[in-house]
């Protein structure tokens, strides 16, 4: 098995063995990610970090990951910072970045943009989020966070909450969790429920999902509650957004019946779906989860650029 030279666009581009390899490697990267140890493993390599949609965590953690391993970074942050604004096509932009670098990570508002870009790039392309499509590297760090807490994914019950229609992190994550033997509840208002194709894929893997809008009822049975933001920017009409805005909020009161070991995760950014007082409970895991993006993306960059 080798990940060398591989495009990572959807989570299904990775076998279970490849996912395990990345998570194992990430564990060995933690000291370097924290700056306790140095590494020149990717010296001389360049990452093109192309973010045509806003990002804090994904862009900064990829760029940190590359630099912690001794590599260099070139970056576009926002379409207005590139010649796309002059009418250059995405295909030509990708061809340029491909020539200037060894690997591309990209985020784009259009679903399918990363897959299309991979056809124009000789070097590997990693999807840092494509519209309401997928976010596979977020899934890797989510799995890493769960595995570090529980030592396993198999047998966990994960409750995904919020904008499951546009929330690309939940699309990639639910497919991976189903393959790894976790059960799930999908909690959302009906108009932003999980897309049918994802529900069908999960069911085909033999996993029953409970689809509901009653978050409180799901708390006692959950090992992980995975909150998400309602993605205002993806609604065609503000009126539709307002119908579901502020649908769910985790506050300390709702946690009274939670398992002691239950963890709350969130890909972030959050708006108002987790009360800040929850940050100080033993359940909160979202800031550690965001940090885990660094070792996980270090592992991925090294494996895709260098192999084992
Ligand atoms: N989780 C995540 O994708 O965050 P950013 O949008 O800040 O990259």
Physical arrangement of strands within the biggest beta sheet: 7-6-5-8-9
- Name of the CATH architecture of the largest domain: 3-Layer(aba) Sandwich
Unreliable sequence segments: none
Query: SSE order in H/E notation?
Result: HEHEHEHEHEHEHEHEHEHH
Describe the protein in words.
The protein is α/β, with parallel strands linked by helices. It has 2 domains: 11-135 and 292-306, Aspartate/ornithine carbamoyltransferase (Rossmann fold, 3-Layer(aba) Sandwich), CATH 3.40.50; 136-290, Rossmann fold. Helices cover 38% and strands 15% of the residues. The protein is built from 11 helices and 9 strands. The protein has helices at residues 16-33, 57-68, 90-100, 113-120, 136-150, 168-179, 196-204, 215-218, 238-244, 286-291, 293-306, and strands at 46-51, 72-77, 103-108, 125-130, 157-161, 183-187, 209-212, 224-227, 263-265. The chain has a 5-stranded parallel beta sheet with strand order 7-6-5-8-9, covered by helices on one side. α1 crosses α5 and α5 crosses α6 (168-179). The longest helix is centred in the N-terminal third of the chain and has 18 residues, at 16-33. The model has no long low-confidence stretch (mean pLDDT 97). It binds phosphoric acid mono(formamide)ester. Phosphoric acid mono(formamide)ester (CP) binds at residues 55-58, 129, 135, 138, 267-269. Phosphoric acid mono(formamide)ester (CP) is lined by residues 55-58, 129, 135, 138, 267-269.
């Amino acid at each position: 098995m080798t990940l060398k030279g591989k495009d990572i666009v959807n989570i299904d581009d990775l076998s279970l063995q490849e996912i395990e390899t990345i998570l194992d490697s990430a564990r060995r990267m933690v000291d370097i990610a924290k700056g306790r140890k140095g590494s020149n493993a990717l010296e001389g390599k360049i990452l093109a970090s192309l973010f045509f949609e806003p990002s804090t965590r994904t862009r900064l953690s990829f760029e940190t990951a590359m630099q912690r391993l001794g590599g260099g970074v070139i970056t576009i942050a926002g379409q207005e910072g590139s010649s796309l604004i002059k009418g250059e096509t995405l295909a030509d932009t990708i061809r340029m970045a491909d020539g200037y670098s060894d690997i591309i990570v990209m985020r784009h508002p259009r679903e399918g943009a990363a897959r299309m870009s991979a056809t124009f790039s000789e070097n590997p392309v990693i999807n840092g989020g494509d519209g309401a499509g997928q976010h596979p590297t977020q899934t890797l760090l989510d799995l890493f966070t769960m595995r570090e807490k529980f030592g396993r994914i198999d047998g966990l019950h994960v409750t995904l909450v919020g904008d499951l229609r546009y929330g690309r992190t939940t699309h990639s994550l639910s497919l991976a969790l189903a393959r790894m033997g976790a059960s799930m509840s999908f909690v959302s208002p009906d108009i932003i429920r999980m897309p049918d194709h994802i529900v069908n894929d999960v069911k085909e893997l033999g996993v029953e999902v409970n689809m509901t809008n009653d978050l409180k009822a799901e708390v006692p049975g959950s090992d992980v509650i995975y909150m998400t933001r309602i993605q205002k920017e993806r609604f065609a009409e503000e009126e539709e957004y307002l119908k579901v805005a502020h649908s769910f909020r985790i506050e300390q009161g709702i946690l009274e019946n939670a398992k002691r070991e239950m963890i709350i995760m969130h890909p972030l950014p959050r708006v108002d779906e987790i009360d800040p007082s929850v940050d100080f409970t033993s359940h909160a895991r979202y800031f550690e989860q965001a940090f885990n993006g660094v070792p996980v993306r270090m592992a991925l960059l090294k494996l895709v650029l260098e192999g084992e």
